[in-house]
Amino acid sequence: MSIREEWKKLLEERELFRLAPLDGDRPTRTVLLSQEMEELLERDMEEGEQAERRARLLATLQNIVAGNHLVVCLEPYSARKAIVGRLDPIEESVFDVRCQSKPAVRVFCRFVEKDVLLAVTCRPRSAQMDWLGWLPLRMQSKRWKEAIRATTREWARLFPTYEPVKGDSLGEYLSKATPERTRRRR
Amino acid sequence: MNTFQRQLLKELGDGADGEPISKSKLVYLQERLRGRFFDFLISKFEEARDGGLNQAKLARRIRKSPEVINRWLSAPANLTLESISDLFAGIAAEEPNFSSSSLLGRPKINRFHLDDTPMDDGAAEQKVAESSALDQKGPRPPGLPSIEEALR
């Protein structure tokens, strides 16, 4: 069975969920949601700052599905404005979708195949957000590592015999994407 | 369609005498527009790049530093009406045209990305061969029998 048949089977079994675009938008990429992410996006929420943050998150993920142009940083610790960044260690091939508007959140992901992203967990970047149920990542490497581990654990549960997309060429991960121009860290 | 989108279309559909549109729905539409407009802008830049434009030339043309151009072309959140005007002038001697369409009653697209698309060989090779551990040529741990010995 190919990995594509595998993720489609997981959709049928409701182990994974597909992020639907707004009606009328033609989906040219796929964002697969873990149960945690699906629950997060579907949960009833009172109007307020949290609901607004979640609305931005939904729009950011739907921008990916709609095939809009993405700026991506493949070099860990170097992303400044990129919407998608590869995390350290690069061998794990875990990425975050960076929802930058304050208060910022990060969605931890892996690429199942080109233009197919598995969104596993969403963590607050710096400010505590009760609706997410996780402590902010801040600059604490322990929390980043834990989120990366959560992503690889969920991958292993869903796709035990498959590897995520790996490599240093952006074209292996996404169409319509350009690398962020970064200054090398010293 | 998820709950949020159903609520969004309901609120928008209530019309001029309806309740105020909730802030989260307005914020969603702002973010969506940013992404869509950024996509439009970058596609313009990509077209012009095929004709020899680059960020440094663009920066010189519209009297900005390369850092500013890089920031504008890196994230939708950095754009303003002023920067959009400058960018379109510098990229293609153009200005955007305007039209809009209703968000209500739009047909749902029933085909998803990759529906009925067979997988190419390269992607299919992602599978970790179940026998890969047995195929490895590295030294066998002490005490572990070879496959042949184990099968004998």
Describe the structure.
The complex is a heterodimer of chains A (186) and B (152). By secondary structure, chain A is an alpha/beta fold. Chain A has one domain (3-21, 28-159). Chain A starts with a helix and ends in a 7-residue tail after the last strand. Chain A has helices at 3-12, 35-42, 49-65, 141-158, and strands spanning 17-18, 30-33, 70-73, 84-86, 95-99, 105-113, 116-124, 177-179. In chain A, strand 6 and strand 7 (116-124) form a beta hairpin. Chain A is globular. The mean pLDDT of chain A is 93. Chain A is built from four helices and eight strands, in the order H-E-E-H-H-E-E-E-E-E-H-E. Chain B has 152 residues and is mainly α. Chain B has a domain at 3-12 and 22-92. Helices cover 51% and strands 0% of the residues of chain B. In chain B, helix 2 (23-50) packs parallel to helix 5. The longest helix of chain B is centred in the first third of the chain and has 28 residues, at 23-50. Chain B is extended, with a radius of gyration of 27 Å. At the A-B interface, helix 1 and helix 3 of A face helix 1 and helix 2 of B.
Question: How do the strands and helices of this protein lay out in sequence?
Answer:
The complex is a heterodimer of chains A (about 190) and B (about 150).
Chain A: H1 3-12, E1 17-18, E2 30-33, H2 35-42, H3 49-65, E3 70-73, E4 84-86, E5 95-99, E6 105-113, E7 116-124, H4 141-158, E8 177-179
Parallel strand pairs in A: 2-7, 3-4, 3-8
Antiparallel strand pairs in A: 1-2, 4-5, 5-6, 6-7
Chain B: H1 3-13, H2 23-50, H3 55-61, H4 66-72, H5 81-92, H6 121-124, H7 132-135, H8 147-151
